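Below is how a single chain appears once it has passed through the pipeline. First comes the sequence as given, then the structure the pipeline wrote out for it. We keep one example in the README because the format questions we get most often are answered faster by looking than by reading.
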Amino acid sequence: MDRTEALKLLHEYIKSPNMLNHCLASEAVMHALARRLGRDEGKWALAGLLHDLDVEMVKGDMYIHGKETARILTEKGVDPDIIDAIRMHSETSAGEKRSKEFQYALAAGETITGMIVATTLVYPDKKLAGVKPKSVVKRMKESKFAASVRRENIMECEKIGIPLNEFVQISVDAMREISDEIGL
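Resulting structure:
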């Protein structure tokens, strides 16, 4: 599946502008992580783009989130590695722990986008251009800030060999490249 087909599929299943922006941000972060690690950039970006395909369909039920996406993408003939990473980004519904680099990268990469957006929105101009990665890292230590963001998922960046400060820098830079597209 190429990006054009993936975007069409995404718009078929996701209607919320915020969720669409999250998927685009996750795509950008995953692309940048793949570049940094020397992995398949297109494959990793596609996983980021499509990882929440079923979230509206399952009404955010974390016990089934990811299963419908896996079914849909299997029917579309998508690479099984992409499907596996997507299925495993939600350990709750997968019923098992992540164990592979691609799985860790997607869980960390899609989760950091929420922390970056939340940090951006407390800046006076609400623009990514002014966000300092160290501010994102600092906010991670504040448990009440963006309380729904799972810090333990973000910390899985270390399981792929990227220290937190570098991971946040890569992610902020990736999201800045698409800031106009995601309204930040």
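The chain has ten helices and no strands.

See the next section for the split statistics.
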